[in-house]
């Protein structure tokens, strides 16, 4: 069966899922939804697919799953991918979980908030809160300083092997230049730059970066 991914083609979270479908060579159909018409909030969609009225949503032959990272874990397990470390190696799995939680708590939330202020507010006629922008940017810069130190000792965030934790950064990380920030590309943090350049070059990301 072909996987169905319900999501908006420009949504970073939708791209996180379709990127991994490409990574694992899993056939999928993108069922396109529009944020402008609030398709994700329509009663039938909320009832059947997403009680939180958010995308993406996976439908695997009737098995429905929402939240992009939960979908990612499922797809990686389905594909038996080494990008999801085995629970048999407790220490390696713990390092991986640490990296995932760091991305969620210290990067993605702030990256989304920054993009909301610098990009998406303009589309809705709202005014950017520059004080919030400064705080988000300051905190992200501190995080990327820490990342550079981590990556000076190992190739990837969870060790010397690539995991989902690394790839999870791609969708929102690629919005930073649109927000006016080049932390990942400017080379001032050489280890971070090396890591980011490698991630960005992956064919799976290149295939979906403009349209999920």
UniProtKB/TrEMBL annotation:
<feature type="domain" description="GST N-terminal">
    <location>
        <begin position="1"/>
        <end position="83"/>
    </location>
</feature>
<dbReference type="Pfam" id="PF02798">
    <property type="entry name" value="GST_N"/>
</dbReference>
<comment type="similarity">
    <text>Belongs to the GST superfamily.</text>
</comment>
<dbReference type="InterPro" id="IPR040079">
    <property type="entry name" value="Glutathione_S-Trfase"/>
</dbReference>
<dbReference type="InterPro" id="IPR010987">
    <property type="entry name" value="Glutathione-S-Trfase_C-like"/>
</dbReference>
<dbReference type="GO" id="GO:0006749">
    <property type="term" value="P:glutathione metabolic process"/>
</dbReference>
<dbReference type="InterPro" id="IPR004045">
    <property type="entry name" value="Glutathione_S-Trfase_N"/>
</dbReference>
<dbReference type="GO" id="GO:0004364">
    <property type="term" value="F:glutathione transferase activity"/>
</dbReference>
<keyword id="KW-0808">Transferase</keyword>
<dbReference type="Pfam" id="PF00043">
    <property type="entry name" value="GST_C"/>
</dbReference>
<feature type="domain" description="GST C-terminal">
    <location>
        <begin position="89"/>
        <end position="212"/>
    </location>
</feature>
<protein>
    <recommendedName>
        <fullName>glutathione transferase</fullName>
        <ecNumber>2.5.1.18</ecNumber>
    </recommendedName>
</protein>
<dbReference type="GO" id="GO:0005737">
    <property type="term" value="C:cytoplasm"/>
</dbReference>
<dbReference type="InterPro" id="IPR004046">
    <property type="entry name" value="GST_C"/>
</dbReference>
<dbReference type="InterPro" id="IPR036249">
    <property type="entry name" value="Thioredoxin-like_sf"/>
</dbReference>
<dbReference type="GO" id="GO:0043295">
    <property type="term" value="F:glutathione binding"/>
</dbReference>
<dbReference type="InterPro" id="IPR036282">
    <property type="entry name" value="Glutathione-S-Trfase_C_sf"/>
</dbReference>
């Amino acid at each position: 069966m072909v996987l169905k991914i319900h999501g908006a083609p420009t949504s970073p979270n939708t791209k996180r899922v379709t990127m991994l479908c490409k990574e694992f060579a899993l056939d999928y159909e993108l069922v396109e939804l529009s944020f402008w018409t609030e398709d994700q909030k329509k009663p039938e969609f909320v009832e059947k697919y997403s009680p939180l009225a958010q995308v993406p949503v996976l439908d695997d032959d009737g098995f429905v799953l929402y939240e992009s990272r939960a979908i990612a874990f499922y797809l990686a397990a389905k594909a038996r991918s080494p990008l999801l470390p085995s629970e048999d190696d407790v220490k390696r799995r713990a390092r991986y979980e640490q990296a995932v939680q760091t991305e969620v708590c210290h990067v993605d939330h702030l990256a989304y908030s920054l993009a909301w202020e610098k990009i998406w507010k303009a589309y809705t006629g709202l005014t950017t809160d520059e004080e919030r922008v400064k705080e988000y940017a300051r905190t992200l810069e501190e995080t990327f300083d820490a990342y550079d130190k981590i990556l000076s000792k190992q190739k990837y965030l969870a060790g010397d092997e690539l995991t989902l934790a690394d790839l999870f950064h791609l969708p929102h990380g690629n919005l930073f230049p649109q927000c006016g920030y080049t932390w990942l590309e400017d080379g001032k943090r050489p280890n971070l730059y090396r890591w980011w350049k490698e991630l960005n070059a992956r064919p799976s990301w290149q295939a979906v970066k403009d349209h999920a």
